[in-house]
């Protein structure tokens, strides 16, 4: 993320930007995050604070940003729902993870299908499965079974998943995995061959992250997904972005670079026009036109339907098939659709494992 931010801000920049960093670990300790943010405001005299946080952890910093009357930009995977009202000093650049899960859930349930929900011990502690359920229910589908994997590599297996497939009459699988757990799941499916993949899968956005997929064995079968961005997108902003990251880091751009890059775009707007300019602010991103909603203070942008297919050397690859235009109404629907009962979950920032 810092590389993406630097790449967007530093080339020939005027004014010259200085960067100060603090480590908040997994982000689950709100007292630590608060003290680090306070130190940056008080000691380092930063003008803009940028943090990678999920919604709840970011909201613990709202009061601090308001007290100093300095902007806080939150970079977020978008796998949690806001609990506090928007702050005039705080804005979220999100990858819309829950929005993608809801659309994938809708796809999995279309035709009144029975859907097997498959997730990891880690991913199940966020709101991905909840958003899947909301989407598939809207399409007339119903969850017929729940599989939750373990998280220890040596003990990982999908025996319970295979049993549920055989005994629940599932017509599709809603799959919500990320990071190394997605790799373990794909590889386990590959080992079980056709026994594990008789029905189509509808995968969460971060299960289809391209650099992750390049490490996963493709098991065959049908895998569909909804993602916030792909390296295959073609537009001038994408070309500038990917070339800048490659030149600066000698690496291919990824979604974390994208978050930092977009933070740079918003930072320039803040410096030039002030925080009042961010309400309903739109900008051209490598993922398409991105807008900060004036009510939620979260971004919404195009999403992309895709397929996970066999790639080089038997690994997985992402193929984009369709653009889903940005939809302010759907953004509000996803962000305001809160669980009516208490839901427990992990506090660490998503993908910090």
UniProtKB/TrEMBL annotation:
Residues 28-308 form the Leucine-binding protein domain. Keywords: Signal. The keyword Signal applies. It comes from the Bacteria. Belongs to the leucine-binding protein family. This is Leucine-binding protein domain-containing protein.
């Amino acid at each position: 993320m810092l590389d993406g931010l630097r790449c967007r801000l530093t080339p020939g920049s005027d004014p010259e930007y200085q960067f100060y960093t603090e480590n908040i670990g997994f982000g689950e300790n709100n007292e630590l995050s608060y003290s680090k943010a306070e130190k940056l405001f008080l000691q380092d005299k930063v003008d803009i604070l940028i943090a990678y946080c999920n919604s709840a952890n970011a909201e613990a910093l709202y009061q601090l940003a308001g007290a100093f009357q300095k902007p806080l930009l939150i970079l977020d995977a978008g796998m949690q729902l806001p609990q506090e009202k928007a702050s005039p000093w705080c804005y979220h650049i999100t990858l819309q993870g829950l929005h993608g899960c809801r659309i994938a859930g809708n796809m999995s349930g279309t035709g009144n299908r029975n859907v097997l929900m498959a997730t990891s011990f880690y991913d199940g502690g966020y709101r991905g499965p909840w958003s899947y359920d909301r989407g598939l229910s809207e399409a007339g589908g119903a969850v017929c079974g729940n599989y939750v994997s373990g998280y220890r590599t040596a003990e990982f297996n999908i025996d319970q998943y295979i049993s549920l497939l055989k005994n629940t009459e599932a017509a599709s699988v809603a799959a919500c995995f990320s990071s190394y757990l997605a790799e373990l799941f794909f590889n386990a499916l590959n080992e079980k061959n056709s026994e594990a993949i008789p029905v189509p899968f509808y995968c969460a956005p971060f299960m289809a992250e391209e650099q992750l997929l390049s490490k996963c064995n493709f098991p065959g079968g049908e895998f569909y997904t909804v993602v916030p961005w792909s390296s295959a997108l073609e537009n001038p902003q994408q070309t500038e972005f990917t070339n800048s990251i490659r030149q600066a880091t000698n690496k291919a751009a990824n979604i974390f670079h994208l978050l930092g890059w977009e933070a740079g775009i918003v930072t320039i707007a803040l410096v030039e026009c002030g925080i009042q300019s961010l309400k309903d602010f739109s900008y051209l991103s490598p993922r398409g036109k991105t807008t900060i909603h004036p009510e939620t203070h979260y971004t919404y942008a195009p999403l992309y339907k895709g397929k996970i297919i066999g790639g080089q050397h038997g690994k997985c690859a992402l193929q984009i098939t369709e653009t889903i235009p940005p939809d302010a109404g759907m953004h509000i629907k996803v962000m305001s659709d809160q669980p009516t009962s208490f839901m427990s979950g992990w506090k660490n920032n998503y993908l910090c494992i």
